Amino acid sequence: MENSILILLQLLLAHVITDFVIQPTKWVKHKRRNKSKSKFLYLHALIAGILTLIFLMRIEYWYVALFISFTHFFTDLWKLQFSRDTLKIFISDQVLHLFAIVLAWLWITSNFQNIIPYLSELISSETVMAILIGYLVIIFPAGFLIGKATMRWQNEVEDDLKRNSLDAAGRYIGIFERILVLTFILTLNFSAIGFLIAAKSILRFSDKSETGARKQTEYVLIGTLMSFTITILVGFLVRQVAF
Fold it and tell me: Given CA atoms 158, 163, 168, 174 in this order, what sign does their dihedral have?
């Protein structure tokens, strides 16, 4: 198992260095401008294969390096067909790269036959199910619940929020803070929750010069406290079931 994980880490390291460490911005711009005619597209794919072979440290895995180089080329070529490199395109590109890496890893370690048993074990695990449900609950239902509960005050601060806040910023801040709080609870890092509250208070309530800032502050505070309360309750419930 240790050797199997090491191989996966070596493949991932080769990918990270290829895509993010040694690829200059000049190459990226040239590939986007020239697409399949860009010499850097071919060079980039070649480097992906070479680094894979170097990190695997076994010449007999040349076919794995060739597979990584081949899939890297066509994945990047697919990405270049889009006019803009949006977040969705970037994530899709990286998912395809990771899928190719996992396939190569499964082939090297002969673990294809273990996929179904492993997934079955995950699905039948109370710990995994409890943690998964916990995160889904605090990301989705909790957000809807807080939105409904604070609806009576939304009209009072709506104009101030539109003028002084990024679009939907509060929603995403709430999601990430609940993820962090649940993670802290599951890992027994309760003191970090206090640090998170303090950090958010400094960032969100530092500017009170605007008229109506008090209402906006109270509105955000109500949402924050509800968010933390729900997440803490879910966290302790998940710990009770999972651990």
Answer: negative
The sign of the dihedral angle between the CA atoms of 236, 237, 240, 243 is negative
pLDDT in tens, 64-79: 999 999 999 999 999 9
Q: In the chain, pLDDT over 70 holds for what percent of residues?
A: 91
Contacts of 214 (CB under 8 A, 6+ apart): 208
pTM for this predicted structure: 0.83
Q: Are 53 and 108 in contact (CB under 8 A)?
A: no
Q: State the chain's maximal CA–CA distance in angstroms.
A: 70
Q: Report CA Rg, the chain.
A: 24
Residue with tokens 């050797």: 3
